[in-house]
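Comment thread on ticket #2218

A.B. wrote:
> Attaching the input chain for the structure job we discussed in standup.
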Amino acid sequence: MPNRLADETSPYLLQHANNPVDWFPWGPEALARAKLLDRPIFLSIGYAACHWCHVMERESFEDEALATYLNGRFVAVKVDREERPDLDQVYMAAVQSMTGGGGWPMSVFLTPEGRPFYGGTYFPDEPRHGMPSFHQVLEGVDRAWREQRAEIEASGARLVGALVAQSRLAAGADGPSVTLLEAATSAIESSFDTANGGWGGAPKFPQPMTIEYLLRRHLATGDDRPLTIARRSLDRMADGGIRDQLGGGFHRYSTDPIWLVPHFEQMLYDNAQLARVYVHAWAATGDHRYREVAEGTLEYMLRELRTADGAFAASQDADTEGVEGLTFTWTPSELHEILGDDSPIFSTAYGVTEGGNWEHVTILSRVRTDEEVAELHGLGADDAARRLDAARASLLERRVTRPQPPRDDKALAAWNGLAIAAFADAGRLLGEPRYRDAGVRAAEAIV
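C.D. wrote:
> Ran it. Output below, let me know if you need it in another format.
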């Protein structure tokens, strides 16, 4: 039987409309019910394309016994972070303050007044990897609510006070000084992954704004070190499985430090920012490959995310028919069927093997250059490049006939603003009027 989310318009909330959990949308009704019943609020925040949101739904929110426990002791509230970025920002800051990290699905426990007192992200259905199960978390919070109520409310009040003070400090900050910029550059350099590009281990996010900063720092100072770091990151991401080597878009993040295995959701804001930074990298260096990557990403946005009125949809899902990456992976037999005699050439370039590089299939990543492929197969470099271009086109054409990941059709003003900026810069710097026209059309649709 549908719950209260059945009347919502958000694709993410509608995904949960048939859960046995008695979900409320965020609003006065949920808060009033929590106060009336004197129960804590369980707030779950996510988005339609989020892989781990789907996992937690399957494991926990569709479980009848767990839902009965949750419904009997909490008021459960679902929020689409893309619909309510204000709530997402506030409660993400709280979770980060409590745990030192954050992500989605975000799981936060609140007093009936909405003050956070405990939180985290994904909780599994069984204890694993040092994490408690979601049922254990619910039992612990319920017990603390009944037995340590005063401490919980005091903790929530302290946390809210700290967040308010932090926001006031940020609002009053002056622009960055030269000293601060130099310190930021040093911090970026010291945490840089020299082997693989980017920053951090796993999960590993593209961080286009950090790369944008490095490009601007290079142009402002003439220092080549920021440019070297930026280029290493751009090159490794362009080669990796985080980039759809056929369709041109970027997946949201890599589950490993080497950019190979992504979570497969594709977000408008990521692709808009990455397209723009590759355009700027081409303008700064003249390296034609950056132009190719930028154009591929822009074409992905036009092909897969543009709506009928010219705006851009929010995302494509990580899962296809409930299977992660189903649309994007390949086997040697599939390549041979489609490419025939050119399948060994393509496999050499993109690392396709019988055993695969992920769950017995292959996520395409560029492991050899055109020149290396040509030498290994006794071809001229131009011939190898031509054959690889044709192979990519053939595989993309075939891939379109596969089941496709669902699209979240919400057109968000802020994310469309990022896309408009990317198309405007591409039109100007690449000399492509149709990119400018796409940006203008999106702006008209949003306004």
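A.B. wrote:
> Thanks. Noting for the ticket: The first strand starts at residue 24 and ends at 25.
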